[in-house]
């Protein structure tokens, strides 16, 4: 479904099909973009392991913390490739508290075998590498770009597209205008969206999920 089709469906359900519109196309497009990201946060709809700067990180000798693209929602797995064409070595996913504990107890430089996402768009590698290499990530991510052109289509599977209209209605019915504001309908639209994509995990739930990682398997022979 294109952005134009999403907007048309939202207008039909809002009874806002005649100009002058109560809600602008720009607002509806923005809420469609917002809804797609929200759906990905809730339901982990976009899986990726091939996107250049987003899933590949160059490791620098002596450096243990690296920027993580803000579109990465969660890391599924991580591997290091030391030489182009060589077999990658799998790393364990850990919580930041585990890495901090190891840093207090053991040598901080060596061959990395664990990584942790600190929730602030940073990735921690432990121990710090002594050689250059490339980290390969497999992730769940947010959409890469906003929906702007009428011909743009959401990245999520087409079967989920009409669910974005629920988010668009949820936002539209909250407009402080007596001709459209309807908090009862806003609440219903949010319930419909949640039924399709699930509850949004709180920041605390996401933190606890990261810190629960206590994988004991050691990869790559380390």
Q: What secondary-structure arrangement, pairings included, does this model have?
A:
Layout: H1 3-14, H2 25-43, E1 46-48, H3 52-55, E2 56-59, E3 65-67, E4 72-81, E5 89-93, H4 96-105, E6 109-110, E7 114-117, E8 122-126, E9 128-129, E10 133-141, H5 163-172, H6 183-197, H7 203-211
Parallel strand pairs: 5-7, 6-9
Antiparallel strand pairs: 1-10, 2-10, 3-8, 4-5, 4-10, 7-8
Explain this structure.
The protein is of the alpha+beta class and 222 residues long. It folds into 2 domains: 3-45 and 143-200, no CATH class; 46-141 and 205-211, no CATH class. The chain is built from 7 helices and 10 strands. It has helices spanning 3-14, 25-43, 52-55, 96-105, 163-172, 183-197, 203-211; strands spanning 46-48, 56-59, 65-67, 72-81, 89-93, 109-110, 114-117, 122-126, 128-129, 133-141. The strands form 2 sheets. Strands 1, 2, 3, 4, 5, 7, 8 and 10 form an 8-stranded mixed β-sheet that branches. A two-stranded parallel sheet has the order 6-9. A hairpin with a 7-residue loop joins strand 4 and strand 5. Helix 1 packs across helix 2, helix 1 (3-14) crosses helix 5 and helix 2 crosses helix 5 (163-172). The longest helix is centred in the N-terminal third of the chain and has 19 residues, at 25-43. The model is unreliable at 214-222 (pLDDT under 50).
Can you tag this structure with a few keywords?
2 domains; 36% helix; alpha+beta; two-stranded parallel sheet; eight-stranded mixed sheet; 222 residues; disordered C terminus
């Amino acid at each position: 479904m294109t952005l134009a089709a999403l907007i048309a469906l939202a207008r039909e359900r809002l009874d806002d099909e005649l100009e002058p519109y109560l809600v602008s196309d720009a607002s509806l497009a923005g809420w469609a973009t917002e809804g797609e990201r929200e759906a990905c946060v809730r339901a982990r709809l976009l899986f990726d392991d091939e996107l250049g700067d987003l899933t590949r990180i160059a490791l620098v000798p002596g450096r243990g913390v690296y920027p993580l693209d803000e579109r990465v929602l969660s890391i599924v797995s991580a591997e290091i490739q030391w030489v182009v064409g060589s077999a990658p070595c799998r790393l364990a996913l850990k919580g930041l508290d585990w890495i901090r504990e190891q840093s207090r107890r053991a040598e901080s430089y060596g061959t990395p075998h664990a990584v942790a996402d600190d929730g602030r768009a940073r990735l921690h590698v432990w121990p710090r590498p002594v050689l250059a290499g490339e980290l390969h990530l497999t992730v769940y991510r947010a959409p890469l770009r906003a929906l702007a052109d009428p011909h743009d289509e959401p990245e999520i599977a087409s079967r989920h597209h009409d669910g974005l209209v629920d988010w668009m209605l949820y936002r539209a019915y909250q407009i402080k205008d007596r001709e459209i504001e309807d908090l009862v309908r806003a609440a219903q639209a949010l319930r419909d969206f949640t039924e399709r994509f699930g509850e949004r995990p709180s920041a605390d739930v996401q933190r606890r999920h990261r810190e629960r990682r206590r994988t004991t398997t050691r990869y790559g022979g380390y």
